[in-house]
Design goal:
- The chain is globular.
- The mean pLDDT is 95.
- Strand 21, helix 12 and strand 22 form a beta-alpha-beta unit.
- It folds into two domains: 218 residues, UDP-n-acetylglucosamine1-carboxyvinyl-transferase, Chain (Alpha-beta prism), CATH 3.65.10.10; 207 residues, Alpha-beta prism (UDP-n-acetylglucosamine1-carboxyvinyl-transferase, Chain), CATH 3.65.10.
- By secondary structure, the protein is an alpha+beta fold.
- The structure holds uridine-diphosphate-N-acetylglucosamine.
- Uridine-diphosphate-N-acetylglucosamine binds next to helix 1, helix 5 and helix 6.
Length: 436
């Protein structure tokens, strides 16, 4: 195996205080890297987060022949003129579902793509019927054989597509392919997430003609070719939101920099409602979160943007597990997103899950325990719990967290947290001796 079992070991009980810088958005970077191969000219991407999913996707485009040059930790040059193969290996798809964006990108450029069908994942079944429905609507023939999606056409033609449900992935995938189709495409009931807008802005800087991204109707006029450009990825609203929750849970005072406060409104509103003080500064792109007293209960329901994001649900639930009274959290996007609750119970939380609803009775404090990270966002939520908890917490399976958070432990340490990334029992003991 090429990877080691790693843990975070944390001594909790301290408020987080200070300033932290947010990286570029993973969920914008993945489709943008895929789309960058749609021109034969060089594309320079800046503000890329240095996280495992991004690095695996860069390997995967290099795997089909693209030229990939790391300029520095957050900058990469990509040139798609050397691509010799439109079939993506299962090895990559297995590691990151989002390599299905190569379907839209390769179709847009070559009218032809072969990508393994992604399996389910830890947060529930994740069908891609809406992606395929959109491709078919613009004239693509799709065959699923031996677990592989074979997509091809002689020419894509613009069309009118009404999405049956709001899907970030399907909206982006269809937008990429349709931007090179002949004629006009309209996507109705489109996803409005900031990363949908970021991908549209990127495609437009390569010469696409996309209007309305950020609303629920996106209008695309196909163009025959794209050209190179330099583009900087939007800040990661989920990473920012995660630090906001960490500040709230530890009753800290944190200034979160390099964010777009507007993207954080649903999160800020909930934190304000339960008693945090939030100061936004559009001018210096930052949000300050202060929690000076015990927070209060509330109800939260996850929704597509601009509603409360499903990717913030576990972190919010950790904050509510410490808040006065009974809170109710409803997960309406994914079916299996409460798996961290059993881990949190080991730290003392009192949470009952019924179907897609969690009923949370707030407690005063968590107590440290050995717990395991079930998926990316839940893993981050458990780290937040560990930062608040009395004593030591060990979070296993942090490989999920490393998929999407750049230098998570380093950024937390800069806010005063006692956390270390380790890979053996010996190192855990050493940490406990050193800080204990
Ligand atoms: C993206 C994000 C993920 C986030 C999610 C919702 C990336 C890489 N991932 O995932 O972090 O949690 O948006 O904000 O950007 N659905 C279908 N058929 C489809 C597509 C989706 O039924 O063809 C359903 C899904 O099962 C889910 C809902 O639609 O219930 C929303 O999924 P979608 O917005 O597509 O999520 P992803 O793009 O996979």
């Amino acid at each position: 195996m090429g990877w080691t079992m790693e843990q975070y070991v944390i001594r909790g009980g301290f408020p987080l205080v200070g300033e932290v810088e947010i990286s570029g958005a993973k969920n914008a970077a993945l489709p943008i890297i895929s789309a960058a191969i749609m021109t034969d000219e060089t594309v320079t991407l800046e503000n890329l987060p240095d996280v495992n999913d991004v690095n695996v996707l860069l390997d995967s485009i290099a795997g089909i022949g693209a030229y990939v040059e790391r300029v520095d930790r957050h900058t990469v040059k990509i040139n798609g003129s050397t691509i010799r193969d439109c079939s993506v290996e299962y090895e990559y798809i297995k590691k990151i579902r989002a390599s299905y964006y190569l379907l839209g990108a390769l179709l847009g450029k070559y009218n032809n793509a072969s990508v393994p069908l992604p399996g389910g994942c830890n947060i529930g079944s994740r069908p891609i019927d809406q992606h395929l429905k959109g491709f078919r609507a613009i004239g693509v023939d799709i065959d699923i054989r031996h677990g592989i999606i074979e997509a091809s056409c002689s020419m894509m033609k613009g069309s009118h597509i009404f999405m049956d449900l709001v899907s970030v992935g399907a909206t982006i995938n269809i937008m990429m392919a349709a931007s090179r189709a002949f004629g006009k495409t309209t996507i109705e009931n489109a996803a409005k997430e900031p990363h949908v807008v970021d991908v549209a802005n990127f495609l437009n800087s390569m010469g696409a003609n996309i209007k309305g991204a950020g609303t629920d109707v996106i209008r695309i006029t196909g163009v025959p070719a794209f050209h190179g450009c330099t583009y900087s990825i939007v800040p990661d609203m989920i990473e920012a939101g995660t630090f906001m929750m960490a500040a709230a849970a530890t009753r800290g005072d944190v200034i979160i920099k390099n964010v777009i406060p507007k993207h954080l409104e649903a999160i800020s509103a909930k934190l304000t409602e339960i008693g945090c003080q939030i100061e936004e500064s559009e001018s210096d792109d930052s949000v300050r979160v202060m929690a000076t007293k015990r927070l209060a209960k509330t109800h939260v329901k996850t929704q597509p943007y601009p509603g409360f994001p499903t990717d913030m649900q576990p972190q919010m639930s950790v904050v509510l597990a410490l808040s006065q009274g009974t809170s109710i959290v409803t997960e309406s996007i994914f079916e299996n997103r409460f798996k961290y609750v059993d881990e949190l119970a080991r730290m003392g939380a009192s949470i009952k899950v019924e179907g897609n609803t969690a009923i949370i009775d707030g407690i005063d404090t968590f107590t440290g325990a050995r717990i395991s990270s079930p998926d990316l966002r839940a893993g981050a939520a458990l780290v937040i719990a560990g930062l608040q908890a009395e004593g030591f917490t060990i979070v296993d399976d942090i490989v999920y967290i490393l998929r999407g958070y750049e230098d998570f432990d380093g950024k937390l340490r800069s806010l005063g947290a006692e956390i270390r990334r380790v890979s053996s029992e010996k190192e855990i003991e050493k940490f406990e001796l050193e800080v204990g």
